Every structure is written in structure tokens, then in C-alpha cells.
Amino acid sequence: MRNPRAFLRPLAVGAPKPSSDVPFRPSRMIHFFDPSNEKMAAKVPDIAKKVDIILGNLEDAVKTEKKEAARQGLIDIAKATDFGDTQLWTRVNSLDSPWVLDDIVTLVTEIGDKLDVIMVPKVEGAQDIHYVDRLLAQLEARAGLDRQILVHAILETAEGVANVEEIAAASPRMQGISLGPADLAASRRMKTTRVGGGHPGYIVRQDPTGEDLTTGRATYQQDLWHYTIARMVDACAMNDILPFYGPFGDIKDVVACEDQFRNAFLLGCVGAWSLHPVQIDIAKKVFSPSPEDVAHAKRVVEAMGDGSGAVMIDGKMEDDASCKQCLVMLDLAKSLAERDPDLAAAYDL
Length: 349
Ligand SMILES: CC(C)(COP(=O)(O)OP(=O)(O)OC[C@H]1O[C@@H](n2cnc3c(N)ncnc32)[C@H](O)[C@@H]1OP(=O)(O)O)[C@@H](O)C(=O)NCCC(=O)NCCSC(=O)C[C@H](O)C(=O)O
Ligand SMILES: [Mg+2]
Prior knowledge:
The protein is of the alpha/beta class. It is about 45% helix and about 15% strand. It has an 8-stranded parallel β-sheet. It has a two-stranded antiparallel sheet with strand order 7-8. The radius of gyration is 22 Å and the shape is globular. The mean pLDDT is about 95. The site of magnesium ion has 6 residues, from α7.
């Protein structure tokens, strides 16, 4: 186990000093693109203006014969594009793959000054983060970088879920965690074939009213991902890092996508992945608190003064705990308003 007093020491001579906290930057969507796909790559400069995070994906969804082209494509795009306030991330190949070492070494050397976060897939325990942590420190020192590149883990194996608390706490470099429902379903041997979302077979059924078991009993579809998201949110919150829902693969079903994203938002996630341009505005809408919620939060905070005691607002009791919830809402609204002039006008903070 690492000496807690050494937690914030650089892991290589000359590497930037780790920061004690993860800066909260608007992170409503992580927009995935394949840098080896010319059509997608051509859209990056425009898409980057609309999203909070743009991610060049090198792992799954990139064909084996395109792995090197994707890596080089990301380097070319990063060098040619001014991303402004938008974060640039990459998802490297998994740690057991033949590409990951070159992914990390080449990207940090070539575009380390532009990369904000490296997303690491299929993280199973703290040992995976420790490996990436030390390697990044060595590469940052060699490249003369003056700030750390952060690390984001995907929770997509049964072992990873079992170890999620130690993953979240493994390094000051940890920025956050995303749920990877497709790989997780395979790892758990769940009997689904979908990329995220619900399943019509996963239900609870109303009790029978008489002898007839077959008619008049409503069924309610349940959320397959509730347990994992809630556990991931707790692990992230206890370590002050950010939880994200991952992909929703049914691109055409924009309604269910919005529902899945909203469930994640309500449970504490700050954002989700967008796999297709149509999912960008869904994430923007869902992960920005509504002006009504923000106005209510403002009223409660103003009425509560120093936060102690209890007041009635619209027939409901508000106290220290509900005031804290409202402060969470207002903090998020303020940081989003700084980035988005439409939200700034709608929130009027
Ligand atoms: C899902 C797609 C394969 C769909 O692509 P396509 O069939 O080309 O869709 P459209 O014809 O509707 O596209 C319209 C135009 O938009 C461009 N496009 C599409 N997607 C993107 C994008 N993500 N970024 C930028 N531009 C995009 C198309 O090129 C079309 O352009 P044009 O012809 O000029 O009009 C595709 O969207 C896609 O591949 N998306 C990314 C998929 C991905 O990254 N998957 C990996 C993440 S999910 C995962 O890994 C699972 C997870 O790890 C887990 O385990 O759960
Ligand atoms: Mg995956």
C-alpha cells in the first residue's frame, strides 16, 4: 500500500506535481469519434464547438487494420485544431492489447500538451491505474509537460465493479469513471445483446387480484444498470471524482436514450457518451438542470439564510439537507452558465 503522505508526490523525476482536486469542468457529453474515419474526422472542428468533451477513440469500434491510422489521425487532428474550452480526450486500447503501449507513448509524446484525459478501458483494479499512472509520469517528464494528464476508467468487467472503490481512489490522477454496459454485460454473462439501455424482459409484475394469474397484471420494466451506476456514483463521490453513464447504442431511439441519460443524471452522473451527433443535444438537455429547478434551488437557498433551521416553501419543508441539494444544483448551473450563454440567460443567476 502507498504511503498516504506520498500520494501527491510526482511518480517520476521531472513530472508535473499531481493536483489535490479534480477541477470540475462542464462534462455533459463525451463525444466519441473514430479518427481513422475521414468523414467523422472532418466534422471534428465543428463538433468540438458544440460539445464539452471530444474523444478520439482508438479502442472498440475501430477496426484492427485501422488502429495505427486512428492513432495517427488523432495526432493530426489535435495538432491542427484549436479546441478552445472543449476538453480533448482519447480512449486508448485495453491494457492487455498489442497497441496500448504505443498508444500512450506516442500520444503523450506528440500531443500530451493538448490531451486533458486518457480513458482506460476494462480497468479491473487499482493495479491497472498504478501502471498507467507511473507510465504517464515518466512520459510527461520526458515531454517536459507542465500539467498532468488525468485518467478516466471504464467500469466494464465484473472484477472492475467489485473493485470500484479502490479504482476510484487509486491515484490523484483519477478524473472519473464511466459505465461500459456492453462489455460489462458480456463479462457478467448477462443475457442481453444491447449496448446499454433497458430490456423488455427485465420486469416486475403486479400481484394477481384473484385466481387468474395471466390477465390484468401490469408489468413495469426495470433498469438493468441501476445497481452499478449507484455503486459507481458512491465510489466517485467519496473520492471527489466524476461519474458518467456510458453509451446508448440504439441511436434511433432518442426517447429511451433521453430516459437512460436522465436516470443517470438524477442518480448523480455528470454526463454520458454521445456516439452519434444526434445524441449531443440529448445529453446537453438532460445534464443541464432545468431553469425551473435552478429557480427553485435559488429560492430555497435564499430563504434558508445560513442554512440552519427549517422553512416552508410551496407547502414543502426545506431544511439543511434540502438546502445542500439545492447548492449542488446551483453550483452545477453556475459552472454550465459560464460556458453556455443560453443557459446563463435562462438561469439568470
Ligand atoms: C453508430 C455509427 C456507426 C453510425 O454511423 P453512420 O451509419 O455513418 O450514421 P449516419 O449515416 O446517421 O451519420 C450521419 C453523418 O454523421 C457522421 N457521424 C456519425 N457518427 C459520428 C460521430 N460519432 N462523430 C462525428 N460524425 C459522425 C457520419 O459520418 C455521417 O456523415 P456524412 O455522411 O458526411 O453526413 C457511428 O455514429 C459511429 O461509429 N459512432 C461511434 C461509435 C463508437 O465510438 N463506439 C464505441 C463507443 S461504445 C463502446 O465502446 C461500448 C462500451 O465500451 C461498452 O463496453 O459499453
Ligand atoms: Mg467496452
